[in-house]
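(Deposited chain)
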Amino acid sequence: MVAGPRLARVPFARWGVFVVAVAVVACTSGNGDDGAGDRSSSPSSPSASSTVPVDRPRGGRVRVGVWGEPDVAAPTLGGAAVRALVLPQLFVAGPDGRWSPSLVEPGTDRLASDRRSARFRLRRGAVWSDGSAIDADDLRGSADGRFVAGVDGPAADGTVTVRFTQPLPGWQRLWSGVDSVTAPGEDVWGGPFVVASYTPGLEVVLRRNERWEGGPRPFLDEVRLVLVPDYRTGLQLLERAELDVLAPLATTIRTEDLREMAGVTVDVARRSGWWVGLFLDAKRLDGDRRKAVVATVDREPFVGTLLRGEADVLDGFGGRDDRTWDGVGAGDAGALKGRTVGLVGELEEPNTYLLQRSMQKRARAAGGQLELRNAEADRVEGWLARGEYDAAVAVAYDGPSVCWLCRWGGLDEGLARAADGGDRGAVERLEQRLRDDALLLPLWRPRAVVGARPRVGGVRANGYGLSPAWNAWEWYLTD
């Protein structure tokens, strides 16, 4: 998984604000708002909880398999997946790629016509687990200074205004997605669940937050996020009913495997913010060697054969018609002759090793060597964040509203900020630089697939969710 520059902030007495850099992404917000006029920035997208029946049965425990270490304090995507369930977020990303209000009072958010500010009201009665109010001071204390110039209010009518450092049509990602509102102290929570316990390398136990006011309180008493990094092991545990919910990463006939499993229901969402890419470090590899490494990858047959129906070749991030990387890949790897290049990979991603072996074969044919260095995803995230790699095959995540500056600000801050501001021309130019300088080769975008035991109701696939438990507050037991 790809981690970004702000992940190092983990204060002892306060949970830090974490932003996972999401590499190359679309400039659009994904919510259908063009930013023109003073209006709701999340039209036609109800609160994630607003349509949930309140008469569902209550009680029970559910076990969910996750492939990233579920450490709430970790500066990783696995940690962000837990924080999204136990800390407040302004919005929640739904399967349709739209932001739905969570801490924000539905229908109150408005983006200014110049896209330089937004106003909204926080939900009435929103409190932390210790009973203290969640308010504008909490937003001020956990604002991303790269984009937030200030937080004003609340006004007499309860309205809070957030001023931006630049036009920001995708402002909903602030305090949302991989980011959350920082808690005022240790063991204080503000999401639908609270952390009851955490066992490193095994699981985190979440229990219902009786004070949560982001919608109907969770129906379940307890949700356990169990670390299951191996695909086959996850399937076996689900089949034996030792897991209730599992969303494996893309691999050959993953969906078919789940559908053939007795007593398991399957949901699929083709839209997704997850993707896998080849990242190359300009500080450790010159341009010729970066291009030679890219030339060892034959994306089309690899994805079309091994991941047919499970993922799609990714040619760009500006929408379905973006073909920036179309045709980039297998070619002349001669610049690797007599050279050894380190190639990092994540153990949890099922296809990484197969891809690496195919790349090694092409490198050897050119007289070069790719030396593999694979590890757990959370370690790889750290290597990428610190630049401790030559080339890396890694899983990345984009929310509906994504951040160019977080990942590519060091390449061209002005261009990245313009892309975040909605300039499509800037997106095209930035993508072309990434392609032409061989800093990135997008590989594939998987479809979101989740399998669940029928005893658990309310489970939905969401390619923009950080884990299969993204809406666990809606789940209930049917037996």
